[in-house]
Records
---
Amino acid sequence: MPASRRLAAIALILGATVAVSLFVGRYPGPGPGIISPDRLATDDLAQRLVFNLRLPRLLTAVMLGMSLSAAGAVFQQIFANPLVEPGFLGVSQGAAFGASLAIVSLGSAAWLVQGSAAAFAFAGLGFSYFLARRGRFGGAVLRLVFAGIAVSALFSAGVGALKYAADPLSQLPEITFWLLGGLASVTWDQTWSIAPVVVASLFVIYRMRWRLNLLSLDDATAFSMGATPGRERALLLAAAVAATAAVVSVCGMVGWVGLIVPHIARRLFGADARYSVPAALLVGGLFGVLCDDVARTLLAGEIPIGILTSLIGALFFLVIMITYGHPVEQR
Amino acid sequence: MTELLAFEEVTFGYGPEARPVFECLSLGVESGTATAILGPNGVGKSTLLHLALGWLRARSGRVLLDGRPLGAYPRRSLGRSMSLVPQAERTPFDYSVLDYVLLARAPYLASLAMPGPDDERIAREAIEEVGLGHLCHRAITTLSGGERQNVLVARALAQQPRLMLMDEPTSHLDLAHKVRLIGLVRDRIARGTTVLLTTHEPDVAAAIATHLVLMRDGQICGAGALADVFTSDNLSATYGVPVQIVRVDGRQAVLWT
């Protein structure tokens, strides 16, 4: 099957999964927790549940998976390193620090935690970029990697200090819960507050995806092909971080998605970003929805989604690694 | 003959305080010629190519393409004028040979456009030309060092440049591939492409080049037509080892003693 047909097939699966997920979940009353279409048409409570709670949550789960996966693909291509993820460059640890700081010192209003997490995520990137520019050794990419590691370590030390200082009965559980990630409290307000940033950033990444192939080469080589590596890299990284910061600010820390989904996409569609980036978007969205479905339906209580993404992601990845080949011939 | 590429009193060093790699270096490359830069390791041959590319900027002096400073060209048009065959290139991703060579079409495409059927045809022709047609869909990470180097050459050809910069293009090639590449480059020169290459193999320089530049200690210690510069005395001085040039059937080879 040609790549475009296979992409369309995954898109269909994603749409169908979102549609089915709307009807699945905890609901008071008889039956195994599935709302039938009949009931949706007549039951007022069911309507409110589906359209005011589940729909925004599902859309956010799709945005979460898409953003982390696309951002992961961008980071991996730009750093020519399949082991980096969008939290790299101090972004994840910055967001964690921002959220913890808000919980400990500003109170736990959702918008404060969200704003503070997003602000510190960008501060992490900005700080890393600044340090990399001041660095006096190695190439631009190596300096960025080192700066990102150092900034992440600083912020994670800060998170540790805040956890130590936090009230163990009220604040610490909240920090821990945020660090594990979850979409239980997502409302339409939050979905709308991140949607413009996410959609715009993903659009930039999608349209510039072929350039990612160029940027994965040495800077001098990319330059020889008429590219402007510094500027294009900064633009794509900014888009990736904006999308990541937006979803993380609402959903908390969700690990592994940004690391493994790009790998899965490349294994299914080959390394060429023309196909691997759309594949990462679709597989990521699907992955986000499925993980959130499990998080909200498996047990009577919510399971933090970060635990699930790591568990399911790692297992899924192992299966893909062992079974599937990709279109490029290997010896 | 007009000078396609010219260095005018170029001084360059890595970093503002570092000792300059070159001082006041001047050099011209005439259109339709092949110039080989010959010299010992670490003399700055690759740096010179990166300056010619415009990737590195001279501390003082100018680098001109067709009489205009490199900085005056839009990025894309410079990408259409010259291509680079880097010494070695690593990528962790399994691009197919075709995808990889297609990247060379970037300067011909609008900033958000993807390569089309014409670009693919040009890329396939370039891959055929270096003799890797049967490997079009193989992952580049599975190729041998020599095959990879040929992929880099194919990519530079697919860029359809007027000036090809080649950094040690034969360093990973076995004898058969070396002969093939030399033939390919000579064929390109015959069709009007200008070539500036670095090499530490005098034999390769003698086989490809029409002009020769000898470098030592950041200085050009000899430049001109191959016949004038390619002498035992010059090469001995360049490498600091006594060498002797022997002629067999009209070909030249270097023996060291």
---
Amino acid sequence: MPASSMPLPAEHLDPETVAGFSARTLNAKQRSLVFEHLAGCESCRAWIAANAEISEPAACRLPLPWGVLAAGVALACVAGWQLLTPSQPHGPLATSAPASSKLASKEDMDEPASTASRRTPQPHHVSAQRVLPGALRQVRLAPGRVPMPALNEISLQTTVGEKWIRAGGFLEPTQTDTRVDLSQRLLRAGTFRVRIVPTQPLAELNLRIGSQAVDQPR
Amino acid sequence: MSDPPYPAYFRKLYQESQAERVGLPFSDFAQTLREIHPSFSEDSYRALHLKDLALAQACIRTIPGAWDSFSQRYRDGLFAAALNISRNESVARELADSLYGDIFVSGGNAQGTRQSRLASYTGRGGLEGWLKAVLSQAYIDRYRSQRRLVSFDERMMVIQTTLFSDLPAVVDPRLGEAIKEAFLALPAESRFLLAGYFFDQRTLAELARTLGVHESTVSRRLDRLTKLLRTRIGRLLRGKGMTIRQVQESFRTDVRDLSIDLRSHFARE
């Protein structure tokens, strides 16, 4: 019996299985058994997630020709993007960044912007307060005239709880806009925030709630 | 007493594992292989991480020099991993030291002392990966124990009751049945993804790292899955005698609210 097809423990996962999962060295059957366990075990899901933070795959999963091809395509895309994108002046990115900062709430803007934080895109927080219950059905996020520079995570947060309640996903670079459906729980919350986590500074962003554009915190 | 007969290739495996360099005698090496994996074939033994297994066994037996090799090879890496996972130097130091405490135990069961945690390492994967997995488990245990102090579950309950206080008290039981049926019919990986996202509130980035895929892939999968669930639940509800209008009413209970029903149905803890 090969090592990779050894049976998995019936109860919680063991360290070797978790390590194998993170390193992607388990075979399909084992992986499926792990998923079966994980689907019902919060404890092991937390463990797997934590281990993924410090583990690296044992090897590239793509066979070499595909890996080379993929790398080539990626390089070509990067080169193409640089050719097609007007060059930006060097220096602090803050100068070219937040047109979207007009959407940011005061409390977010009050945060000191260190040089480091200027280089690293920060989440944009938009607050829209005193929304009438039931009036909020959909948040529409549109990047305006320019396409989004990169993949951007969108999530919504009620101020009722401490946790982010996600109602969103990703706005991909090629998308011109996206719509975020809100759940019943958000409809009941009088205050909410939209958090956009850009991978690059946003040039422009329009936020709409229902059919009404929101230019500043209400 | 003479050694039990071992296959001839055990000698070769012994050489390949460099067990002699860490001071592990052949008899101990062979006995370990037999005890841990009694039914393995030669190929299966070869697939094991024999060097790591030999080092672990030498450490368990407190063979002089083995711990030095172990420390040299893993100590810094473990601290770096602990720092990476905890993002706090003192916590990282504590985690790494605690792991060492679990591993570094002089003596064995025979003396009635604690057995080193390394005894559970079987060589199926690399020792470094195993150590990191044990480390991350310790971190999660520590995190959980601290969360319990601030009553994480209670806080969650407060959030739920705050947000759902005006939900109708009675939800059509057919909805719960349909949700359960549709959810269980999904492949395990899909259920894992939904559970991670909706129950555990993991970010797309975290899920992507766990699965080794891009974040947008996770996003697309989740999108597809929620749509699929809705379709299937709708179909099941129609099959249970609901009208289209009733089905639509049911869907006003957002798919994100599935967590409340499903958690009670499927959570093992």
---
Amino acid sequence: MSQTQASPAWASTAVGELLCGRVQDATVFASTSVASYLSVPEPRSGTPVIALLTEQGVRLPIGVTVAAEKLPEAGSTVRIGDGSVVARDRTWRAVRWWDPRPHLTAEDLFRNGAKLLEVLEDEPPSAFGFPLADALNVANALAVGDALPALEVIGLGPGLTPAADDVVAGALAVLALCGCLHDPVRVAVDIHASTHTTALSAALLAAAGKGQVIPQAAAVLTALAAAGQPVRLRSACASLFSVGGTSGHDLCVGMAAILAGSALAGGFRPNGEAISRSPR
Amino acid sequence: MIQLDDSPAMVTVGASLFADALTAQVTTPRQVQWAPPVAGSEVDLVAIAADIRTHAATAESVRRLTATSPCWVDVLPAREALGLGPREFLHAGPPVDWAHASGPVRGALAGAMIYEGLAQNFEEAERIAAQDGISLAPCHSRAAVGPMAGVVSTSMPVSVLEDEESGRRAYCTLNEGLGRVLRYGAYAPEVIDRLRWLECVLGPLLSQTLRRRGPVDVRSLIAQALQMGDECHNRNRAATSLLLREITPDILESGARGEDIVAAFRFINGNDHFFLNLSMPAGKLAADAARDIPGSTMVVAMARNGTEFGIQVSGTGDEWFTAPAPPVKGLYFAGFGPEDAGLDIGDSTITETTGIGGFAMAAAPAIVLFVGGEVADALENTLRMYEITLVENPFYKVPILAFRGTPTGIDATLVVRSGVLPAVNTGIAGREPGVGQVGAGLVVPPMSVFVDAVRSLARRAEPQGAPGALGVKEPS
Amino acid sequence: MSTRVELRHGIYRDSVVLMQVSQAVAACRGVTAAIVAMATPLNIEIYERLGFDPAAVDGASPNDLLVAVRADDDALAGATAELERQLAPSAPSQSDGFGSPPAPRTLASALRRGGSLALISVPGQHAFVEAMDAIQAGVSVMLFSDNVPVDQEIVLKDAAARHDVLVMGPDCGTAVVGGLGLGFANALRPGPVGIVAASGTGAQEVTCLLDADGVGVTAVLGVGGRDLSAAVVGRSTLAAMKVLDEHPATEFVVVLSKPPDPKVAEAVRAAAAKLRTPSLVAFVGMGQGDLTAATAQILVALGRTPTAYPEWSPSCERGTRAGFIRGLFSGGTLCDEAMAIAAGRLGPIASNTPLRPEWALGADLKAPGHLMIDFGDDRLTAGRPHPMIDQSLRLERIAQEGSDPACAVLLLDVVLGYGAHPDPAAELAPAIDAARENARRGGRDLAAAVSLVGSRSDPQGRDATAVTLAAAGASVHLSNAMAARTAVALVEGAADDPA
């Protein structure tokens, strides 16, 4: 361990095992002004990508937020493990954790689920990276266990997280939170993503498959679950929409498509249990 | 209600150790750079904050101020527009009598008395005034404002500004131009002659023009001028130019004599500050809309008469809160120095009261050439004013601040709490009557007037719960 | 026609920027096709459909940035230059013209720039005005400030109710919201318990005991020391209970306070009974049960079995001894609890915050028999930092007790967590050691018992702190009640005259 004074880090519980496990060297494969993305050689049961973030960066479910003005650059090596993240001139120690999986049940989500689509319908088409109609198709298919439409669009879009991927992630996350995500679907998406999209996006899709989302998306879902407060929902959506270029919108579309789509009406979970859609 | 699921976006005020404890958890709060309010004011501030009317009343003041749409509709003699009698004279600033009036105000009153035929010369005017032969009142008390000495008498033509929706009106004389003019306390024959010309030629010409053309949207001109480097208090060049464009065709078709039309154009063209006498009543109209709302802490007038600096606040009605007028710090014209300078004077701070002038300095960085300082100061002044104002002006936007609205609507309690005083830039009048302008600069209003206003607001506050219960005492 | 195709690593821009770059380059004179995107298979398909050569991207990975431009021969250089210009990192735009905006001087001004929770710690006579700023902005408040008059507290809480926000305080030292510790707070793990506390150190003790049991919290909502008085009638307590009840992840609600006004107690119990969430109302103090017992009740309600809490015993000899307990506390609730336990067995305990008026200490804070001092009391913290931060008064007193033959046991609390001293053991251990050495030279065996309030993840290191203190001769207990009982046991039974 380096002798330098350790600074605090705030990490997602999803990277807890990696961060606290055996020390290994990760490589920064990409960096922006608010994030450095690390490629982890031995993910074990965790994620192969960790995002080192400044306080301005969106708190990805695979993220570790640190107070830093400059993050390690692409190509540099960062040592992770034993509770710390060690870069060339900084050491960060995980002192605080967040849980990227919101505590919501299917009943919570579907209670006011249709309202989310209403909010999205007020947004201009240019705000989205992926057309709404296509998103609905992909989501409905995922809901009934058909991954093919999703596989056909993963990797489509210019950014680090292609727009189509954001839609699929939103849909997967809601399905996972409801307990309606068929395992074969999740696995198919993960395998396909590993070769058909960026490493970052693949990692985020995998996280979504476990119901892990960014805090802004969690806030939207929580606002939906809360007893009818449209102001709170709109304010939460506004925060989500300001994420990324179109990412926030696309993520929201994926979520809304599941919640408002017809595929799950009177549908069933993988274990055969019926999902209640009626308000309490 | 408090959200429990996500890490809160923190704001801290007080000891920095709390902010440090948050930063140690990788959540950097926004910290308030807090300092105690002016000593002795805390009890008053508590009473006002506890008054259930304060917030809504103040918000209503702001709404009425920014909803006002001032239009220049006419030019009329003061006797007609204001009902000013032959021995009645208005002046800038809070109430003052002849005995205490400053040099420029005395000079201007004497000049006006000569103009009205009440006196032959300064000495006679002085004698009459000292024996209460004339009556004095602030312009502000008659829905009017006046720059520098701001003297208005019965025959003088005044611009009439009207709010489109409510029909309310505000008034101001026509700007005489630069150099030796009545508003700086000059009373020489040339001054009187010019006043006569305004009364007999320019006033009626403008009146005919406006009646022909229809109302001129003054708010719109101010908004455009702010994006052309004016702040409409000390820089009015662009605004004056825009105004000329608006009225030129109708002046030409007014049917007046050709030589009068030419003289009118030469006159307006030669006076960069012609528009000031429209931006001021536009502010007056807006501020007056916000008056007299019980519980409101918004400032509705800031004005000086060369002897005292005074303010009025919406929730305290006609009460004036005054203190000795401060000196102006600035740059002097060639041949003049601080020893020649009079004290701060004029109703033109109505511009700062309504979100322009010194508050819009960021829109007019060139002003530092006249008032001193660096360009960065101009920006900083505007940015600092957001600390003490209630709203970002919906119409007046500052380009370099990414078109952020100017800081508008001064809250007296925020001044006392933050220690930030309104930024005013102003002309400097010569101390002796008749000298004229000697320079321009920045003036800092006295804090005591805001403290007094807050005290008065507190006395009128209606506490919740037991009457007289609120106070700083031992916890039970 | 010339073409340029590149695969780049390491630099990234978001999708909107990349689309803009594509468009900007495509709009250049002489350019017939351009694409700037991550080299995913689908994006490569688009690249191929634009007529670019598939072979040029052979072996491309989706993590590469694909840059492809096709233009007239004499236009390619210009297009490439434009591309580089667009991709170059840009300075962040500032809407303030020059430099950063001036810092806000009031909470009202700060909140106009955003914020969802305000933490106020200005002197008491100024706190009301700042708090009203937050309430009117629809933002909940943690009000650390004390010396706020009760009438102002009531006005604040009524205004808070109208604006649907929560006022935590005045005189609220501890809160945990969204996993963030506010004021003096421990690093706690997320879990099912939500706590409403009129006592900060009480909440710290309970949450740290729960932490030792592996049970986490959703939130700790402080309500201020006076909320449950007859005047304030539990306004914030009742509001906070409602917030926790409606919070889906909170499965158990705890209300923690010293015994309040009886009518208020009744109202709180009645409200608790009406909650949908299971709850426990724990009014701890004289004759009412202690914080450790309350924690046990919580565990039982959660279906878990309470176990004994970790203790660290010193390496020295134990046994009862003649003399008195001298308790030196930084947390008022912990002091109260220790006094209640001790008084029950030993009789009068002198204090600056006595359980009975007749047990009050004089200004010199000295007494011949048992005594316990709350160094966090207002009168002792006027004009100086809180003892959880600045231990100098306690350290001084430890040294004095070391020379006092009447002192048989030192009883101390050490509260860890954010906001507290970064390494209290580093100062206390030598002081305890020195005092014991001093006593030893005088022929006495001075014992020390420490109540350690800390979680497993606290920055000071809970276990390391315990070990250091134990090495100095103190017996260290996570349970304050246990520490107090230990101290009592050390003197009880020995021949002693009550003071």
